[in-house]
Every structure is written in structure tokens, then in C-alpha cells.
UniProtKB/TrEMBL annotation:
Residues 199-276 form the ACT domain. Its EC number is 4.2.1.51. PANTHER family: PREPHENATE DEHYDRATASE P PROTEIN, PREPHENATE DEHYDRATASE-RELATED. One of its GO terms (molecular function) is prephenate dehydratase activity. This is prephenate dehydratase. Keywords: Amino-acid biosynthesis, Aromatic amino acid biosynthesis, Lyase, Phenylalanine biosynthesis. SUPFAM superfamilies: ACT-like (SSF55021), Periplasmic binding protein-like II (SSF53850).
Amino acid sequence: MSDIDPENRIAFQGVPGAYGHLSCSTVYPQMEAMACDTFADALAMVRDGEAALAMIPIENSLGGRVADIHHLLPDSGLYIIGEHFQPVKHQLLGVPGAVLSDIKEVHSHEQALSQCRGLTRDLGIEPMIHADTAGSAKMIAELGDKSKASIASSLAGEIYGLTVLRDRVEDRIGNTTRFIIMSRQRQDPDPKDGSCMMSFVFQVRSQPAALYKALGGFATNGINVTKLESYITDASFEAAQFYIDIEGHPDEARVSRAIEELQFFSAKLKILGVYPANPYRRQYGA
């Protein structure tokens, strides 16, 4: 680890060149991005004071929610202070001197390969699953084999000295990953400064129509729920916890009323963060 001040570090999961790394460089170019093996490791770096922030993917427009994140957030001891929407722009990367006709195999994360089926079909190349996109680029650079290529970010290509054989190889333009930015301190913005988001988890009481009643306050108070997901928290499969994102700030009367009603029907509620709504939401209706 470098001698950079921990308060000028931001952690991400993956190897250098991953989309998490690209997101860190885009939002916090002045900070040193630190690669971590797992999401839990990235969160622990912040919790233990080895980094100021963590950039964590929570959902993808094509692939849905990112596994494990909802289980990790409530017990991380951290708070969401911001969000970032990162366009996923896949590149077909090969070793210097390689051309498209040389490629027989393409390596990448399973999700990236599924997002680029048209490429593998059109070129007649065999997809090979790798743990992550940037890791596959690193492997291709180390192998130096012109018959093997990687699907990864442009940053991965730059870091590992690979050549872009074809740009934007995803089947569907508009693939985007939403990242949340985690900090040790809760940093609620002033609601007067612009639109806000609020994220929290809750469990409903075990009684008929509890979820319907718990969410009723958001409808009656005109609050937009942008995300609601459930997941099981114990082996009995009876305790369902819900993750929810809403538009609004807890200092707003209407939000306060909705939260109060939610708490009446909830066994547990924990706020994960209040943060500015990213401008991407207004532009694309996210």
C-alpha cells in the first residue's frame, strides 16, 4: 500500500481497470483508487480507516441487482453519501499486433459475455468465462497470445497495454451500472440544494397485509419509490428484509409522515443514507 493519506483513498472491488476503478477515477480523479478482492474488503477498508470512501456497484440496467450487496450494507457500519451511474462501454481488447481474424477465444466476466453475444456469434469465437472483466484483460496481456482477446473497459486496455480491436461491442447501447459511495460519516445534504435520495432497510411485522400497510404512507404522501427489493435474512425463510430507495429527504414533512407510518408496521428500520440525487436520474428517468 502506498504512503498516500488514507483520507485521500477510495476503495473498489476488482483489479485495476475494472468498471469500479473507472467509476472512482471519474467521480474522484484526485483520490487514489485502491483495488480490493471482495466487496466486504472494500467496505472494511473504509470502516477501518484505511480509505475514506468505497465505490460499490448495487445494480445494473441489464443484469439487475449485484449479488451480496444488500446483505453487506446494513452491517457495514457505513453510510451512502452519493451515487454514480457508470455507462458500461465494452471494448474487444487484444495483444499488440493482433487483428480480428486472429481471435479464436474471448475472455471476460460471465455477465459481460452475455451482454456481447452478437460479437461472439458474428466473429465465430468461443466465449470463456473469467472472474472479472479487468482480470481477463490482465491475463490476456500476460499470455501474449494473439488468438485470445478480452472484453473489458478502455481503462483496462490502457493499464495492461492492449489494443482495441473493436469499440462498443455490447449488444445493447445504454448498459449502465449504478454505484453507491460509502463513507464512515453520514452526510445528509441540505434539501434546499436540490433533489435527494434516501435509502434504508426494514422488516415488516408478521401479520397479514403488513407490507401493503407499511408502504401506504408513501402513496398517500406522494413519494416516489424508485427501488424496492426483498431478500431472506435467516435460515427459516420467514424473515424477509426489504431494501428501498425513495426520492426525498427526512426533513421534509411528507417524508417524515411516510417514515412514521412505515415504522408503525415495521419490526426494524435502518437508514443507510441520505444523499443528492445524481443528475442522471433527471436526464434518463432512472
